[in-house]
Write a structure and sequence with these properties.
The protein has about 400 residues and is of the alpha/beta class. Helices cover about 40% and strands about 20% of the residues. It binds zinc ion.
Amino acid sequence: MPGKPRTRRSATSGTSASPGSHASLRSANQGRVLDVLRSGELSHTQAELARTTGLAPATISNIVRDLSAAGLVDTQAGSGRRGSSVRLSRGAGLVAGVDFGHSHVAVAIGTLTGEVIAEERRPLESTHAYADSLALATTLIGDLSPDHAPVLRVAMGLPAPITDNIIRGPGILPGWNGADGRALAEDAFGVPVDLENDANLGALAEHHKGVGRGHRSSVFVKISSGVGAGIVLDDRLFHGAWGTAGELGHLTLDENGPVCRCGGRGCLEAYTSIDTLLARTAGQLPATTLDELLAAARSGEASALRALEDAGLHLGWGLAGVANLLNPEVLVIGGDMARAGELLLESARIGLRRHALDTVAQTPVRVSALGHRASLLGAVLLAAEHTELSVD
Ligand SMILES: [Zn+2]
């Protein structure tokens, strides 16, 4: 969310007890245990909880008993009470992720640990207006949610720059341009909503669950109808001053180049997006979809191979700028175009090596591990992270 501090909220209860009182200490300790249960492994033994939080085993036993009575955790017998495993209960609440694209909407229901339990994807008209699209998303959330657990929060991704929750999408999302996405979504869903650029959500998911896992910095480049990037530095999403960092698609590669939908010339997107690629090969190939173009390339069709190679070289040029500027540990290529795999990445690495400094020329360029689900999974992770839990 632009301009909003990204600090992880504590899961402590909303008690009004004075600081230092017995009640406030208990509440803070409950929050520490809940925070551990919401991150990383799905379940923990009581002994592990004591080790991780630094609390006494007897204190952990009491906290687990209270959290269990409040319906927030489930326990499963193990060897002795301290060996019993504890996990966050689904009854504690669920979250939803919503991912809108140029011509699709995907919805997922997830647990507070960010684990997806149900999801669905539907096509949309490319001119879809927000009112209809939000109504469809609301229906999908309702259909996918189990009866016994409430959806506490939703995170929603859109392929557009977002500043102060206003969607700036004249190109890719004409039916949403200028709308206050968060206010509209909160009206539709009836719960708090986080609004985020879709490439940022993809970056979050790849960083925590995909190719970026185990690294501290990664840049995710989403190539579909448009081109955008999400930047994770020191394990945190980087938004920039006004929330729109990562608009890599509009990096100028040639000021005399082809006109871009942003009004500029020679932007990376005007060489690398799927729409550009299909327009470029329209005279030589009958392909009207990316998959038809990829099939032609795989059967050795020279014009398809050349178009992908050109797109890859330009992508590599853009990646070189990213590597020179940010020195991320890994560059991840996602979005529909990632289906091109090595047909695109081989020339992208050549472009990267040609334009990057020696120190960063070998930065790994990898295909997204999460595919077209990356932004959706990132939405579930974000909503889970931002959900506050209360024992009261
Ligand atoms: Zn542009």
